[in-house]
Amino acid sequence: MLTEQQSTRATPSFDVVPGEGGREAIKLEKAEVVYGRGKRTTQALAPTQLRVEKGEFVALVGPSGCGKSTILKLVSNLLAPSSGHVHVGGREVGAKRVGVGMAFQNPTMLPWLSVRDNVMLPLKIVPPFRSRFRKARKGEFRDRADALLEKVGLKGFGDKQPWQLSGGMLQRASLCRALIHEPELLLLDEPFGALDQFTREELWGILQNLWLESKPTVLLVTHDLREAAFLGTRICVMSPRPGKIIDDQPVPMARPRTISMTYDQDFVRLTQQLRELITHSRPDVA
Ligand SMILES: Nc1ncnc2c1ncn2[C@@H]1O[C@H](COP(=O)(O)OP(=O)(O)OP(=O)(O)O)[C@@H](O)[C@H]1O
């Protein structure tokens, strides 16, 4: 749902043109991850290089088990690299306060809270919102939550309980929860993986709009190559485990992108090329 590397966002900078000398948001420097100890070890990530500028939307794709989620764990400081370095916001991860929002395939909500209170949860936890929350600023935060819920098509659903919402509606609420504290960094791990195609495509559009509004830095893990190309400013392709980034390319399509654009020749060519890269990097496929 949310992690906070020490506390609040530093002064955000959303005015950076991706890839044009903006300030660094994420850097992996020969970051390697080996799970387990002794003889029972799994090298999940080979020494990996990655640099993401502030305001970029990077989609991470690759075969199952190649270490995509492991990269998100490194960046969110849930996991330390076995060797190498991970920098977030220009400093070693954890050394600087960076606001982070997260959403996963399973949008877990606290069942005893209303949808609105679930969305507002980060504001209760994350400084500086936490102290303002206590100082009777709840009304202001309620308005903020309701405005976000409206943007994702959930106007009027704030008072419902999570069990009264469909899977797609819960994922919309989960996006609101990830963004309510205006994080600098948004980490998304297959957020639409469990949804039907129509709902998924609708949510791509919603996420694109939310990103265009404030341009947080986004790292999206997905198996869906159309999703990667629709949303990403850049796509990084990983090799099979132990994974590392074997291809890194910008997505040149204009914004706002539409679903019909995903059937254009250039777009189809891009997704086919990604598919081939992933397929041919698999040792078990000829
Ligand atoms: N806590 C852990 N202990 C041991 N091995 C782990 C642990 N977490 C992940 N792994 C292994 O590390 C490898 C990479 O896992 P990771 O979840 O990062 O892959 P992924 O690319 O996100 O996979 P998928 O696309 O299937 O979700 C996998 O082989 C996985 O089994």
From TrEMBL:
Q: Which GO terms describe its molecular function?
A: ATP binding
CDD domains this protein is in?
Answer: ABC_NrtD_SsuB_transporters
Asked whether the UniProt record includes Transport among its keywords, one would answer yes
* Family annotation (SMART domains): AAA (SM00382)
* Residue ranges annotated for the ABC transporter domain, each copy included: 28-265
Sorted keywords for this record are: ATP-binding, Nucleotide-binding, Transport
UniProt record similarity statement: Belongs to the ABC transporter superfamily.
Q: What is this protein called?
A: ABC transporter ATP-binding protein
Q: Provide the species name.
A: Vreelandella malpeensis
